[in-house]
Specification:
The protein is α+β, with helices and mostly antiparallel strands. It has helices at residues 80-91, 103-113, 120-129, 144-165, 182-192, 197-210, 213-220, 226-233, 235-244, 250-284; strands spanning 41-43, 49-54, 57-62, 65-66, 76-77, 96-98. The N and C termini lie far apart (48 Å).
Length: 285
């Protein structure tokens, strides 16, 4: 069985007290990149959250202190919409700050600090490399019911991607996986190159959650919903649960957490590429 498991977290990191900071080191992404995973919880130390515009973009203020990244850089985001979304994460925290619920803040920290110092092409190549182990391309031969389920549910999204990007992808039951043509990979490289560095960090995050470039692009392109993307990424798990049952509460928690991460990553991509998308549309018109 080809089962994709969520990657784990590293132990929580301690935050410095003088300056409000969120972040830590976390799971390895598809290209070996490490994203920030914040510490688990901390007592809320601020009353009000606001945003302001500085020279480098929009900043987040916790009372009268400016938020900074784990590497002590000024936490600055490129769009007002993203700043509002991040500020909402901080403002929605109650007596205790639950950093593990603040996915947008974590993604911004990763984009700002770039802890692995990868450039744009390295991010793109890492994302495209995931095609070689894409969840929806690996199929089983037995049991027959699961094989049929994979065909019925995964074939349409593969067919959509092949038509959308004019490429050949296919699927395989071999342990070696499908033979992805070099032209297909280069097409995805060219497509991803149209995104900026911030958006690419978000795309990589979504791919890591869904274990699939194809599902991630379907989600980001608004072809499928978050719920559908997550269901397709967990098809084998859902099949086994329907057959054997599930651990009480654990399944629902995992499902909700994966939906939250996929949704946050997709929102991050849209908020980071909004202005460039509008400019591109205006040029096309």
């Amino acid at each position: 069985m080809w089962r994709r498991l969520l990657q784990g977290r590293s132990p929580p990191a301690r935050l410095p007290r003088p300056t409000p900071v969120a972040g830590g080191s976390g799971p390895v992404g598809p290209g070996g990149g490490r994203t920030y995973v914040p510490p688990a919880e901390r007592k809320r130390f601020y009353q009000n959250v606001s945003i302001s515009q500085g020279e480098g973009g929009f900043e987040i203020n916790l009372d009268h202190r400016k938020l900074k990244t784990p590497q002590a850089k000024l936490f600055t985001v490129p769009s007002k919409a993203l700043a509002i979304a991040v500020a909402t994460e901080w403002d929605s925290q109650k007596d205790t700050i639950k950093f593990y619920t603040m996915h947008l803040t974590t993604l911004c920290n990763t984009a700002l600090d770039n802890p692995t110092q990868r450039n744009k092409m390295q991010l793109i190549r890492a994302a495209v490399k995931f095609l070689e182990t894409d969840t929806v391309c690996y199929r089983v031969e037995e049991p027959a019911a699961l094989a049929e389920l994979q065909k019925n549910e995964w074939d349409p999204i593969v067919a959509w991607a092949e038509k959308r990007y004019n490429v050949a992808i296919g699927s395989s039951t071999s342990i070696l996986g499908p033979n992805i043509p070099a032209s297909t990979k280069e097409t995805f490289v060219s497509h991803l190159a149209s995104y900026n560095m911030w958006a690419l960090q978000g795309i990589e995050y979504v791919i890591t959650q869904l274990k699939s470039l194809i599902l991630s692009m379907g989600l980001i392109d608004r072809h499928i919903t978050v719920e559908k993307a997550v269901l397709l990424s967990r098809l084998e798990e859902e099949y086994q649960i329907r057959r054997w049952g599930n651990v009480e509460w654990a399944h629902d928690y995992d499902l909700c957490e994966l939906r939250a991460r996929a949704a946050a990553g997709t929102l991050f991509v849209h908020l980071c590429s909004e202005s460039s998308t509008v400019k591109h549309k205006l040029l096309q018109d």
